[in-house]
Amino acid sequence: MFVFSNLIFGVARVLDAVLNLYFWIVIVSAVLSWVNPDPYNPIVRILRNLTEPVFYRVRKWIPFTYLGGLDLSPVVVLLAIQFINAVLVQSLYQFAVTMR
């Protein structure tokens, strides 16, 4: 029983770390979009490859994401990450603790 509890706890920790890392990637990508960086910079290309597919899906679901030229899709993604972190990850932590 402890092995399964530790497995669930480990999955929750990894998911928490991945969500936090992606949270910061989205923030950096949004800030970089304000300064219009060199599109051939490898870091900019990696950030865009990591975030644009998610932003594109959000823009498809919410057609009014442009408000006076302001793209709100990063805000929606950040809120979704926080929601998943608060609900799913915390539930996994609590489930792992109750199994001990």
Automatic annotation (TrEMBL):
Keywords linked to the UniProt accession: Membrane, Transmembrane, Transmembrane helix
Residue intervals passing through the bilayer: 12-35, 72-93
InterPro entries (UniProt xref): CCB3/YggT
Protein origin, superkingdom: Bacteria
CC annotations in GO: membrane
Family: Belongs to the YggT family.
Annotated protein name in UniProt: YggT family protein
Organism, scientific name: Nitratidesulfovibrio vulgaris (strain DSM 19637 / Miyazaki F) (Desulfovibrio vulgaris)
